[in-house]
Input
Amino acid sequence: MSASEPMFDRLEPLLARVQRPARYIGCEVGAVQPDWSKCEGPDGDRVVRWLLAYPDTYEIGQPNQGLQILFEILNERSDALAERTYAPWVDLEDEMRSAGLPLFSIDTHREASAFNLLAFNLSAELTYTNLLNMVDLAGVPVRSRDRGPEHPLVIAGGHCTYNPEPLADFLDAVVLGDGEEVVGEVTEVVGEWLAAGSRDRTELLRALCGVEGVYVPAAYEVTYDGDGADALVESVEACWETAPMPVPKRTLPDLAEWPYPQSQMVPLTEVVHDRLNVEVFRGCTRGCRFCQAGMITRPVRERPAEQVSAMVREGLARTGYDEVALTSLSSADFSGIAETVEEIVESDTEGRISVSLPSLRVDAFGVDIAAQVQKGRRTGLTFAPEAGTWRMRQVINKLIREEDLYGAVDSAYSQGWRRVKLYFLTGLPTETDEDTLGIARMAENCVTIGKRHMRNPSVTVSVGGFVPKPFTPFQWFGQNTEEELHRKIGLLRDALRRNRNVAFKWHDSRASVVEGMLSRGDRRLGSAIESAWRKGATFQEWSECFSLEMWQEALAEEGLRPEHYAYRHRTEDEVLPWEHLDAGLHKDFLWQDWTDALQEVGLPDCRWTPCYDCGACTGWGVEHVVASAVPPAGGSQGTGQDLDTGGLLPEVVAVPVEVRT
Amino acid sequence: MRVRIRYGVEGKVRFLSHRDVARVMERAIRRAAVPVAYTEGFSPRPKVQYGLALSTGYESDGEYIDIYLDPERQGVRDPREIALALTVCLPAGLEVLAAAEVPRQATSLQDSVESTQWRVLLDVTGGGAMGGLAQQVDELLASESYEIDIIRKGKPVSEDLRPLVHALRVTAPSGGGPAVLEAELGTKPRSIRPSELLGALGVSEPRLVRRTHQWTRRDGDRREPLALGDLSPRAEACAS
Ligand code: SF4
Output
């Protein structure tokens, strides 16, 4: 049977034996159908076939908007087609391996070998072993150098690719930044190579180096200053003349030109974020120093409010969803938020549509918007103050005043919400036990406020261990050890144990260690990733599958240690493993911001205050696209940030009951 | 107003769970602008009644839902038009086969169905195996009771299969192809699953299981909750 024929009949008997087989059938309502007849025409042999892959389960990966956007854009082209694939769960993987069935697409169920590119979306470091596993299931050698012209090209995009070095041995090419335009350019280069007989793989990689935003790891040579566990990168040299240095990222200047996905598909089985998603802007300049997404996606590019409204209106009618999320890194900052929400609420005459803002602003204004749109039962509202003391929030530049949080919480309980969920990070730079315990104090104050409105308010505190990421001011920070994170979680658990109204949740600090190494590692980690994968360490994002032991063994075999990659503070003169890539941010800006952090100096939002030249706009020919020249109204979250008043004792809690401060 | 829809399940969508199908139906109803009534309360749900669940992996020619329409709401009310509108909004493989109005007070689908009919394709290799299967079918039919061990609500129990097997027949493939097992299984007082019958016959992995009919009884006659081709606006005869 030819690889480009559907293979569903061979998969069917296997599906009868596995859990949740619906995750493998595709068939989403509204999904664009890849048109294989394109491959039949006179230029059929140069039609580039993309297999877009998400290295986790369908339930996690299907809603990924980036993947759906590229899926549509590619299928619209006459010289390309795209299908999708997700990591088969371990039960199906076993069945596939014993039946000799390769990785398959879920749209028309074709073998991975029917495609020219296997393109991964990398959003989380702990999925790296899944990537290797999927490449292997596809029948492709896991190491780039072992592949021949008959194998699909293995490439990746997404936030993790700002430091793709740990995967350098496995990826043929990496795309940095917004993918909408660059997938077309990659298609053209690959199409020409196919038309010319597709013989020499290196020739293709050389040509890809010429596409702006594409990084080909094989085109660069990394040298180290030694060969022990603690060796540092000494230099990175481009070894082909086509290879740029540094490799720039891609930035779409105007989101309005890309109203995608135009036909968001509706899954037939349960997935996360199962709702209509409309992206209201990309980029964020709040400047939270721990947030990689905010740093690497600058500047802010808003979608015009009328386009947002049209996408919401048409999307709801087309999909039958009763929920729409207005997505971005901080949706309440969208200039048109009030009008957009009002319009949705007004057009919803039957009152069945709910709007969600995945990132709620921590002030009463945020709650008012939520109140306007949350239909039905008001169960919970989520806020992310991120740190428990004003000092700590100055360090991380999340300049929320405590009074704004309490105002928001008061407003939430008074309007009928019964549960408030608070997100925090622990293990932040300069964090003391007092800062950590500030989290417990804030939670208790929220309970006190809630008791004014109801007998049994509930506060959920969710704490994650901080993992520093490349291209953030904290990229030089040595993260807390697993033991230290564990101890801090213990402090909080003890502090909150007696309060019946507080539920405490935390992330596994062991996973933070592995995530930390992978996020700031160098190429030498590749062998350890491969070794961990060979030991069976797949689905490491899933607590039931995560195995620190496998990672420890793998590292020991390769003579590497977490101290070097994760726990060590780095110096200004050190060559960072990702320094030959350009996320748009000047290194001296990041260093300055790091030293400001240590001195507890905040930085305002450059959308509404003068540019401080971080590098993201200057020299790239892009700038903020923001409809409103003035910041939205509100407290510290609205008026640009408040740089110095956050230490005030909030009045709302000072009055009625005794509150610990 | 209560509108009954009969639909089929075929192809890839047979791997949807009963819950998945319910969600898909509810979304299709909304997209098709069917003026469905909603339940009262904090989180109103569309008023839709489902029939007996179909196991994940099985196909069917006879699945049913009842949709309650809200007299206050605008939209398509004619069963024929509802059928057409839904067809456009459902994924390939979920196909509307019939639609008709039924009296509001009619017995619920779950309660009215007394037996279900199945067609199972089996890969039986060799005449010996086929003979063995045929013999087991004969033995089961000839027995007065046929106890099997099954799991109910997480507990192993013993159940007499015999009174629930209303009909059973196995035919050999003429000129190759899978064997065909046809069975009518009772649902009262408890349903028996086709997989449990197959287990009792020593068959573990059927190629395909398809529900062909669900039967109700009225005035001593066996009927379907909605006959095929019944797209008429009012089909009282089918309201059991
Ligand atoms: S270059 Fe200036 S305006 Fe642009 S994101 Fe950086 S600081 Fe803001």
User: Anything to note?
Assistant: The pocket of iron/sulfur cluster is lined by residues A 285, 298-299, 606, 611-618 (CB under 6 Å). Residues 233-240 of chain B have pLDDT under 50 and may be disordered.
